[in-house]
């Protein structure tokens, strides 16, 4: 064995072939106040996902209700309260 054999060490920093200016930066850590914050965009995207994967309108309504994505009588959905 020579002096250079042994485990290879990984260099610090991002992988040069994987680093890209197009990739977004790592998001900051969420605070306790942010954990329960759901944006209107997130609610909209969740509703679309449920609608696309529902069997029919009754199934869609039931799933949206179970997930707290629909409110009653113009109220905000439970997920936003």
Automatic annotation (TrEMBL):
<feature type="region of interest" description="Disordered">
    <location>
        <begin position="1"/>
        <end position="38"/>
    </location>
</feature>
<protein>
    <submittedName>
        <fullName>Uncharacterized protein</fullName>
    </submittedName>
</protein>
